[in-house]
Amino acid sequence: MATILSGIMALATVGCGTSSATDGNGKIDILAAENEYGDVAKSIGGSHVSVTSIISNPNADPHDFEASPSEVKLISEAKIVVQNGVGYDDWMTKMLKAHSSSDRTVINAQEVLGLADDTKNPHLWYEPKTMPAVAAKIAAKLESLDPSHAGDYKKNLASFNASMKSYTDALATFQDKHPKAAVAATEPVANYLLDAAGIDIKTPWTLQAAIMNDQDPSAQDSATQMALFSNKSVQAFVYNQQVTSDLTAKYKAAAKKYDIPIVAVYETMPAKYHYVQWMTAEVTALDKAVSQNTSTESL
Predict the structure, then answer these.
(1) Does this entry carry the keyword Transport (predicted)?
(2) For residues 179 and 181, what is the distance between their CA atoms, to the nearest angstrom?
């Protein structure tokens, strides 16, 4: 919190930016809270935008993030800010409130999807309908800011939506191929994807929520989780590589002991991937787990 406040104070000397839509390089500045949203923004804006993603380290826990003064300064320069919402990136909301501007548009995935504040699972980027909706909002705003390149933004949006078909087709193929697939998970980070693939998530929601909120699950829920492995009731263990603890490591060890394949999932887009590639790779990893009993412990 101290870091955020110092950053906000630093903004007092930054000023409110210019009214021009472009920066000194003739590009529109876009700031994304998480790199998966930044990747989509770049896909739509192409060479006409400069995109900065604040959270992009796939080896760090995003829940522990604190903004630095230099990152807070980026708020003052962005014409478009893209964030997840549902409390996942409240640090961004606080920074936006501390430095309000009528010259900036905030595209919040929660608001785009019309979701309530008490939506249980905040990991919206795994929901297949999220990014096309966010991309459409980004394209519309870019067209209004930069009408001379409106044709480019429309074309890029169409290309992005076409690329999403590889993800949705993979989900449909998985569901047809494995209609009775069941998994355990550490927390609900990838639940939207698992639901879209028709996969039965056997881990109690209360256990997933407890780990997501950095709390200890009940002994009963933990025993249920361990029994999923020893009874071989699941065909894969979906493991969040960025939110780990002694308890999640214990579950992972149990899965390995009983020959349950591991599928790594992430809160931040892994390096060398674009958004659609990442989502498709996760479905491929699930297919390998269920079809071949093969783990994918990292992407």
Answers:
(1) yes
(2) 6
Rounded distance between C-alpha atoms, residue 82 and residue 279, angstroms: 19
pLDDT digits (tens, 9 = 90+) for 34-77: 999 999 999 999 999 999 999 887 666 666 677 777 777 788 88
- Contact call for residues 265 and 238 (beta carbons, < 8 A): yes
**Looking at the DSSP assignment, which residues form a beta bridge with residue 237?**
184, 262
Q: Cα 34–287–271 angle (5° rounding)?
A: 30
The type of residue at 287 is: D
Tokens of 156: 């890029």
Please write the tens of the pLDDT for every residue from 116-167.
999 999 999 999 999 999 999 999 999 999 999 999 999 999 999 999 999 9
The beta-strand segments (E) located in the chain are 28-34, 49-55, 80-83, 105-108, 182-185, 200-201, 236-240, 262-265
Q: Which of 9, 146, 17 is nearest to 75 (CA)?
A: 17
Dihedral, CA of residue 119, residue 124, residue 130 and residue 133, to nearest 10: 70
